[in-house]
Specification:
By secondary structure, this protein is an alpha/beta fold. Helix content is 35%, strand content 21%. The protein has three domains: 168 residues, AICAR transformylase, duplication domain (Cytidine Deaminase, domain 2), CATH 3.40.140; 133 residues, Cytidine Deaminase, domain 2 (3-Layer(aba) Sandwich); 39 residues, no CATH class. The chain has 13 helices and 16 strands. α3 runs parallel beside α4. It is globular and about 60 Å long.
């Protein structure tokens, strides 16, 4: 074991703080000085992308905040509308950069100041993306020399760069100490494989390869999300994460609201917003976020929104929102435990969710299954609970 002194604990007044680095982990701080939360987030994010890469077989990335993923994705297609919605013009991204652009774009607001993790060696393409984003840290299995030099210059030299060995496996038993009490448990090594989604309880079978992959991405993301949690995903990318709620329907509402926003960011009316040249990317994201809440804004808030634009925004109607969201096929939802009430599917249906994965085993399974059939959803029972505390 090697000891590293940390900047501080969860808060600046919680010092001293430190971490014990296990032998064989290959863990190294290549730049910056991490805090307690930096270590927690980086290890959670790293486990997620490592498992995604193994399960799906493509480069994977995650954008982590406060011990849960804001977004996660595997490398895949980037449409012109998606690139425009993310204020990107280049489409010559490396696979690692592509995966991270998709992961971060799952929730631009929550990815602000994120911990980034990728399953691949960081190349210059990804380093350039990170350099231009508000990000606090990157953890990866390695770094090309020119990429490392660029990242070391980010944030006036304070950007955190962490390396870890992808072959490292921790002990089977993990421990934690809370208020002087030491707890032990077997580490969550349950594999999220395609066979997990074979038990179809509503709808047609079998699921297509694309849907299976997206359900795997959503479910692996949930494995590293504070429970209760519900995840909405599309084409191998998380587009709405509802994390850490005491009620599952609140998780579903949160995840679906975020997914709706992700979809509506690509609506022609949203893409027609013209920003003032002085507006940085985070401020543009804020304007879009407010635009998509237009009917809920006060006159003062609408005035602030318009102050960042050079054209007059044309608000989306309720019908336009619904029509647009229902134009995206293959939207998937996964739950980290059983879905206890049909109201979760009532909300999911409004976001055009067509495929649902849940543990099953609720006293009201029949009611939830009937709701899935009523909405024409395909639902599977995995039999696997994935709580994380």
């Amino acid at each position: 074991m090697t000891e590293i002194e940390l900047k501080y604990g969860c808060n600046p007044h919680q010092a001293p703080a430190g971490v014990s680095i296990p032998a064989g982990s290959g863990f190294a701080v290549l730049n910056g000085r991490p805090s307690y939360i930096n270590i927690l987030d980086s290890l959670g994010a790293w486990q997620l992308v490592r498992e995604l890469k193994v399960a799906v077989g493509r480069p994977a990335a995650a954008s982590f905040k406060h011990t849960s993923p804001a977004g996660a994705a595997v490398a895949g297609p980037l449409s012109d509308a998606y690139l425009a919605s993310q204020f990107l013009t280049a489409d010559d991204l490396s696979p690692a950069a592509n995966a991270y652009v998709r992961a971060r774009g799952g929730d631009r607001m929550c990815s602000f100041g994120d911990v980034a993790a990728v399953s691949e060696v960081v190349d210059l393409s990804l380093a350039r993306v990170l350099y231009d984003e508000v990000s606090d840290l990157i953890i990866a299995p390695g770094f090309e020399p020119d990429a490392l030099e660029l990242l070391k210059s980010k944030r006036r030299g304070a950007y955190l760069v962490l390396r870890i060995d992808p072959e490292f496996e921790p002990p089977e038993i993990e421990t934690r100490e809370v208020f002087g009490f030491r707890l032990r448990q077997k580490r969550n090594t349950a594999a999220i494989a395609r066979t997990l989604f074979e038990r179809v309880t509503a709808g047609a079978a079998p699921l297509s390869a694309d849907v299976l992959e997206t359900l795997m991405v959503a479910t692996i993301a949930l494995k590293y999300t504070q429970s209760n949690s519900v995840c909405v995903a599309f084409e191998g990318q998380v587009i709405g994460m509802g994390a850490g709620q005491q009620s599952r329907v609140h998780c579903t509402r949160l995840a679906c609201d975020k997914a709706d926003k992700w979809l509506l960011q690509q609506h022609p009316k949203t893409l027609r917003l013209r920003f003032k040249d002085v507006l940085p990317k985070p401020e543009k994201a804020n304007v879009v976020d407010q635009f998509l809440l237009w009917d809920q804004l006060s006159e003062i808030e609408k005035g602030k929104l318009c102050a960042g634009l050079v054209n007059e925004p044309a608000a989306l109607t309720a019908q336009e929102r619904s029509d647009w969201v229902h134009g995206f096929p293959g939207i998937c939802l996964s739950s980290d435990a059983f879905i206890p009430f049909a109201d979760n599917l009532d909300r999911a249906a409004r976001s055009n969710v067509r495929f649902v994965a849940q543990a099953g085993g609720s006293a009201r399974d029949d009611e939830v299954t009937a709701a899935a059939q009523r909405y024409g959803m395909t639902m599977v029972h995995t039999g696997l609970r994935l709580f994380l505390h």
